[in-house]
Design goal:
Layout lengths: L2 H6 L6 H7 L3 H7 L8 H12 L2 H15 L3 H25 L5 H9 L2 H37 L6 H4 L8 E3 L5 E3 L4 H16 L1 H27 L24 E5 L2 E5 L1 H12 L19 H30 L10 H13 L3 H39 L17 H17 L2 H29 L12 H17 L3 H25 L1 H8 L1
Antiparallel strand pairs: 1-2, 3-4
Helix pairs in contact: 4-11, 4-13, 4-15, 5-12, 5-13, 6-12, 6-13, 6-17, 6-18, 7-8, 7-17, 8-10, 8-15, 8-16, 8-17, 8-19, 10-11, 10-15, 10-16, 11-13, 11-15, 14-15, 15-16, 17-18, 17-19
Length: 521
């Protein structure tokens, strides 16, 4: 590779051109135009829909039992601060560059095409594989609702269709065998695909309804549990003083064959890395920039508003769970169900009331997971749309004439999530989602100070105060969390990026619009 061709890898899109292309009449005439119908309220609810899901219904208990104890509250605060650093950077970039593509589009204008490709390809890990992970969790909650709560017995052949071929299921005779296909995970992916095909307004309306249901149930759980909290459960270390009592004393434990220091301040920090997954989804708001009525004002409101709302809900949920149930008992797949049982017992309710309450909370969990799948898949289709519009991918830039949605990108994304959700184990892709998201956050955080240097006079409807310390600090914080992920997760990330380079040099570089234009000058 010559020096000239190497430099061409970092060719940047002109910032003013990136913004102008969002309203290019030639693009609208050729491919149709994304409909502008989203308000600040829609965006905030999309953010809440994307954030609140498996995290609040499972990670809260796991992180409390294994890492932080009642101090999981501090872990959520730390995780919220990390996301806030990335969130304000997203808010400035999204308001400044109000186009579909999110971190991909920002990187194209700040660091060049090859970096934009890396981040666009990397976002597949966050959005598409994130939807795969959540669809598997959705399947588990559906089975729990039907079988455990409603008492429906399924034949063995149906039980085998609740897990993929690399995960075990327990049959009616108690034997454990490998599943065949996670059918519910595939079905929910296809249902969400149908909703997304209909239009962004319809998708936002469905999300708003779902968010109202799950937030209402979460608030009911918090309200009912708050009245029966036993403060002794918060006193993990009675010998300490003040808030330090919430932190259990450090203990050397062996987990997954590895010796580790649990609890104490290190446990709180580890817990922050674990619950970080619970915040994933707020950045998907930025992919809808071209569908906002007033993106410069509404995008920052949606991004930061949803982060604040969800952080408060996470903290309250953590306080109630650890207040009604001793934290060592929360290390189960459904800690909220354990919390329900304890609340019902403390209130002296009947078995029928317990069953009803459990049913409602699991409905809330299913609703929450559904909205997460919808928001993540929506984000993925908009990333594909932007990359294809730049020539780096084929077909995905086509917009349906009637519905105003990127229909080819939506169908391909839906089929991909349905296929992988049916076959892949949730544990395999969960950490990939985290590392992919963190890498995207690193580049967005770095993009803010870079643009302050390269485009100091550009209009910034929302401006980060202290761009350099916030941007560098946010990137460093995300790298710190990435460093705590297992080595094999890093290997999978490198393999995924290698596949991406094959696609880029095999197709994207040859069809890149900006490279073609620069070579013709």
């Amino acid at each position: 590779m010559t020096l000239t061709s190497f430099k061409s890898l970092f060719i940047k899109k002109d910032l003013n051109r990136v913004i102008a292309e969002a309203h290019d009449p030639l693009i609208a005439e050729e491919h149709g135009e994304l409909k502008r119908s989203l308000t600040a309220l829609n965006l905030t609810l999309l953010g809440v829909g994307g954030i609140i899901g498996a995290g609040i219904f499972s990670l809260t208990g796991t992180a409390a039992a294994n890492y932080a104890g009642p101090a999981i509250v501090f872990s959520f605060i730390i995780g919220g601060i990390l996301c806030a650093l990335a969130g304000v950077c997203y808010a400035e970039m999204a308001a400044m560059v109000p186009v579909s593509g999110s971190a991909y589009a920002y990187s194209y204008a700040t660091m060049g095409e090859i970096i934009a490709w890396i981040i666009g390809w990397d976002l597949v890990l966050e959005y598409a594989f994130g939807a795969v992970t959540v669809s598997a969790s959705w399947s588990g909650y559906l089975y729990s609702l039907l079988h455990k709560t409603l008492g429906i017995d399924f034949p063995d052949w149906m039980i085998k269709l609740t897990k993929g071929p690399w995960e075990q299921v327990v049959l009616n005779d108690g034997s454990a065998v490998f599943g065949v296909w996670n059918l519910p995970a595939s079905v929910i992916a296809l249902v969400v695909t149908g909703i997304l095909l209909r239009g962004i307004h319809e998708s936002a309306l469905v999300n708003n309804i779902i968010v109202a249901i799950k937030v209402g149930i979460i608030l009911s759980f918090i309200g009912l549990g708050w009245a029966v909290i036993e403060q002794a459960n918060w006193m993990a270390d009675p010998s300490a003083s003040g808030l330090m009592r919430l932190i259990p004393q450090a203990t050397e434990l062996v987990r997954d064959g590895r010796s580790m220091l649990a609890y104490g301040l290190p446990g709180v920090l580890t817990g922050a890395g674990v619950v970080f997954f619970a915040y994933i989804g707020f950045d998907a708001i930025s992919t809808t920039a071209q569908e906002c009525k007033n993106p410069q004002r509404d995008l920052p409101i949606g991004i930061l508003g949803s982060l604040i709302i969800c952080t408060v809900l996470y903290i309250l949920m953590a306080l109630v769970l650890t207040g009604v149930v001793p934290y060592p008992q929360l290390g189960v797949p459904d800690p909220v169900a354990v919390g329900i049982d304890r609340i019902v017992s403390l209130r002296g309710w009947s078995a029928e009331a317990q069953k009803t309450f459990t049913f409602l909370v699991k409905v809330g969990a299913l609703s929450g997971l559904t909205s997460v799948i919808l928001v993540l898949m929506m984000g993925q289709t908009r990333i594909f749309y932007s990359m294809a519009h730049d020539g780096l991918l084929p077909w995905f830039h086509k917009v349906h004439r009637q519905f105003g949605t990127p229909h080819i990108a939506t169908v391909v994304t839906g089929l991909f999530v349905a296929l992988c959700g049916g076959l892949m184990p949730m544990s395999l892709v969960g950490e990939l989602v985290s590392i992919g998201t963190l890498l995207a956050f690193v580049l967005v955080c770095l993009g803010v100070p870079i643009l302050r240097l390269t485009h100091p006079n550009a209009k910034r409807p929302f401006k980060v105060i202290g761009a350099w310390p916030v941007g560098i600090g946010g990137a460093a914080a995300c790298l710190w969390v990435m460093s705590g992920l297992p080595f094999d997760t890093w290997i999978r990330l490198l393999v995924w990026l290698f596949i991406g380079f094959v696609v880029y040099f095999g197709y994207g570089r040859k069809h890149s619009k900006i490279l073609k234009e620069s070579s013709s000058l």
